[in-house]
Design brief:
alpha/beta, 2 domains, 347 residues, 18% strand, two-stranded antiparallel sheet
């Protein structure tokens, strides 16, 4: 099967997203012609390897959200300095969303902007995190609070890497795929894996091209993420990102119903997609979410980076998904209590 190519149309900063087996083997073709050296940022123990032919240094970060920090950015930057990386060179991120975020942010900061290429190795990275130029690290106060918009020069989604993933990592990616299901309404379960990834990448590329810096339409990509980020922060990342997003999608449906935006049938459709079609949110995961203090989750949601005018959510409605600001805190609190009060999830 030949690779799929999607272009993120950003004028003179447009770049390709390649999806398919073996696309990372062509890494040299997508490096800036000015680059004489590269720094590869990856995870320790990652079984998938991608190395350029030019002179390079390798940085291995400890897997997990703890590495998504300002301390990691400092350590990476100091390696840039000792290796002699210049603005004309390139950073290559090989790994999941944590790696593409940290490496991309480090590249954005180094000499006020150095080119980087993303080689995502997880399903979540391929369908979402590696595309669109959102780079960030976490603080104790919340996820992704320090970051920059810095577009890669290419994204090489080599689907050979998926064969190295544990089942949990694949489910995490399906959490983001389910999000795209609601954004576009496509039945992606009927597609091959390559076509499914390419379709998600195409949806994101189209949205990013129309709203690069999340001033409007791009915020729709955060469907399910307001509660998801709170679950990750308050729960000390017991649930991985895609797992938390799946829970967040269900809560967003509950909240939309409480606000009169959708009916019971549409809520049931969310459960049908998330629980039955994609097989997400196990009983153990649900019980771990229910144990989190609702007050702490509310406080974390109020600090979400989208919350510029009170509590802000992406919510379903008669015209589809919309960004809704200034949502009444009492309605959110009541909806959250009702949602968390379910001893078991249906669907």
């Amino acid at each position: 099967m030949s690779p799929r190519e999607i272009v993120v149309e950003l004028g003179d900063r447009a770049y390709p997203v390649l999806v398919g087996d073996g696309v990372a083997d062509s890494i040299d073709r997508y490096l800036p012609s000015s680059a004489k050296r590269a720094v590869v940022v990856t995870e320790a123990g990652l079984p998938f390897v991608c190395r350029p032919s030019l002179s390079h240094e390798i940085i291995e970060l400890t897997p997990g959200e703890e590495s998504k920090s300002l301390r990691s950015v400092e350590n990476i930057s100091r390696t840039f300095a000792t290796f002699g990386l210049t603005r004309a060179d390139v950073v290559i991120a090989v790994g999941g969303g944590m790696i593409t975020d940290v490496a991309g942010f480090s590249a954005a900061c180094w000499h006020r902007g150095t080119s980087f290429v993303n080689v995502p190795t997880t399903l979540l990275g391929m369908v979402d995190a590696a595309i669109g130029g959102k780079t960030a690290v976490n603080l104790p106060e919340g996820k992704n609070l320090v970051g920059a918009f810095w577009q890669p020069v290419a994204v090489l989604a080599d689907t050979r890497a998926l064969s190295t993933l544990p089942e949990r990592e694949m489910r995490c990616g399906l959490g983001e795929v389910a999000k795209y299901h609601f954004i576009a309404g496509d039945d992606m379960l009927t597609m091959t894996m390559v076509d499914r990834i390419a379709r998600c990448a195409s949806i994101k590329a189209d949205i990013v091209a129309s709203d690069e810096r999340e001033g409007g339409r791009r915020a729709l990509l955060n469907y399910g993420h307001t509660l998801a980020h709170a679950i990750e922060s308050v729960g000390a990342h017991e649930l991985a990102h895609g797992e938390a997003v799946a829970v967040g999608l269900l809560f967003a449906a509950h909240l939309a119903r409480a606000l009169g935006r959708i009916d019971d049938r549409r809520v049931d459709q969310h459960y049908e997609v998330v629980r039955r079609e994609y097989g997400l949110v196990s009983d153990d995961q649900w019980n771990s979410v229910r144990r989190l203090p609702a007050a702490d989750l509310l406080e974390s949601m109020a600090r979400d980076k989208k919350a510029v005018a009170g509590l802000t959510f992406v919510l379903d409605g008669a015209v589809g998904l919309e960004v809704v600001s200034g949502v009444d805190a009492t309605v959110v609190a009541d909806s959250l209590q009702t949602f968390l009060g379910q001893p078991a999830l249906h669907g």
